[in-house]
Amino acid sequence: MSDTKFWDERNNKIFSHVGHWQGGVDVIIENHSLMHELMKNASLMQVHILNATGKYVERSIANWLEINFMGLSYPDSRIWCNQISAYAADTNASAVAAVSAAILSTDSRAYGGSQTTFSCMTFLATSYHKYIHGESLSSIISGEKVKNGKPIIVGFARPIDKDDERLKPYELMQKHLAIEVGPYLKFAKQLSAYLDQHYSLTINSGGYASAFLLDQGFTPIDGYNVKAYAVASGAIACHRNLVASPPNSFLPLKCSDVQYTGKAYRQISS
Amino acid sequence: MSTSNKIPAAGKGGKQSKKDFVYANKAQTSIYLEQACEQNPYIASSNFLHGYDVLELIQKKSFVNVLLLLFTGELPAQHNVQLLERLMIALLNLGPRHPAVKASMVAGVSKANVEHLLPIGLSVLGGAANGAKEVEQAMLFIQKYSHQAVNEVHQELGIERLDNDHGEMHVCPGFGSHYGGIDVFALKIVSTIIADNADIEQYKYISWAQTFAQSLAQYDMGWLKTGIAAAVFCELGIGARESVGLFQLICAPGIFAHGVEQTHKPITAIPMLSDEQHIYKP
To answer: Quick check: is B248 in a domain?
Structure first.
């Protein structure tokens, strides 16, 4: 007979360490009352961060992350996640389906919010540790994978364009909110200068935000969770842009617009 | 019709440069060719799958044949068609207690749009524990170790008896305990899939995985359904990355059937736990 105690304890029971809804009374999120405390004092972003990480951060930190979210969600259907949202509009799928598909598509190692934040925070945390223990930037970089003669470091390149228009507002907002530039961001900027000099690569939005999150004491998993739906807003806009259009009107392709590289015609052998 | 007229030779697409990144002017595929009709370049008049005319495939081949063609690029041998068909029946419905199916059922009973039920269930099925990601990892595991004796694998991985205090243990992707014991039905599935096959040795991955699973029995562990899918996919020449979606595809019918069944029921048809059954321990 198998020992099923573990499952018997959970049969028709839920154990939670994050929160609890007591119907008609209150909701508790990580020991904070939603009705009596958070609804009065916290911003939506503070509550989101609390749910995503278990950490109740200062409002200024949440405000900066709001700016970061704005930088992750543009109403432009060329961007991959938004293109997917627009395809959903083209089939007249609902906005919720569109944004869900768009969010799923950003669970990507190449761009988006969550995975790239996780990768970059992990890299920066490890590299900073090496750096303060005396390892040179050149030695740190040498351990990374290389493509086309350049190191592949998430957060220090951009698959669209080299210049990142978000960096200036991020810096200005951090200053405006009186959030000190911490050691990880200082290190990330040093690294960016080094990469720019040697490889023509510079820090991007993800690199900045990852260093910021590390400076605020977040873990890479926290970063992944906080950014889980960061692209939602722009994706909804791109759905709204297309949903009233007739079918097959978004980026229609001629048959010849897809290049076939496969096998030539062959008959089925009997 | 001559072969050369039907499908043009593959050429190289032009490139447009944008600083460090170079994007193609056209999407490329080696899977499918759509040939336009003369009157309208947007309308296809003939379609080819890996070089075969789709209309000929409709007439001459079964769904499973064409499914394997789609993923491997070649029409399969008959014994491989039978192998995949048996796996597809085995995994057609993971049952109403699998998390992916439960997710679809909860969505159905709570009146989510019907068209969302399958994507909801398939997202849940994407995971690395009893999900599609585990199938991919199990394929890589089987491919890596199938040339080694199982006792060597035990030693290398330090496999030993584990208690059930921390729940289900998958000692290797695709293999482990199921609710604290051997997944008895999974065992029966494997036996049935390979039953009446006179030459089991031709299936080197399944044979090795079967021996490996049997070696875990001493620890109350064995095959998991994800491991079965992985072993079969290895035999069929499916790529590890391709296995993720193929597993989801195979399991999709049951996920949707259970979800849509619940849409016909009242929202009260699935239990909502009481405050006392939701225990908050910060």
So the answer is: yes
Domain identity same for B149 and B32 = no
A-chain residues within 8 Å CB-CB of B50? 262-263
* Residue-wise pLDDT tens digits, A68-100: 999 999 999 999 999 999 999 999 999 999 999
Q: Which of B31, B220, B275 sits opposite A2 (nearest CB)?
A: B220
Instruction: Of A96-100, A257-261, B109-113, B202-206, give the lowest mean pLDDT range.
Output: B202-206
Q: Does any domain span residue B135?
A: yes
DSSP string, chain B: --HHHHSPPP-PPPEEEETTEEEESSEEESSEEEEEETTEEEEEEEEEETTEEHHHHHHH--HHHHHHHHHHSSPPPHHHHHHHHHHHHHHS---TTSHHHHHHHHHHHTT--HHHHHHHHHHHTTSSSSSHHHHHHHHHHHHHHTTS-HHHHHHHHT-----STT----SBTTEE-BTTB--HHHHHHHHHHHTT-TTGGG-HHHHHHHHHHHHHGGGT-EE-HHHHHHHHHHHHT--HHHHHHHHHHHHHHHHHHHHHHHHTS-GGGS----GGGEEE--
Total number of domains in chain B = 2
Name the residue range of residue B117's domain: 86-263
Q: Do B60 and A268 touch (CB under 8 A)?
A: yes
Query: pTM above 0.90?
Result: yes
Facing A262 at nearest CB: one of B30, B75, B181: B30
CB contact under 8 A, A263 and B30: yes
CA-nearest residue to B21 within chain A is A159
Q: Which of B27, B51, B277 sits opposite A262 (nearest CB)?
A: B51
Q: Is residue B279 part of a domain?
A: no
> Which pLDDT tens digit goes with each residue over A159-191?
555 678 999 999 999 999 999 999 999 999 999
Based on the fold, state whether residues B151 and B233 are members of the same structural domain: yes
Domain architecture of chain A: domains with CATH: 114-226 (1.10.230)
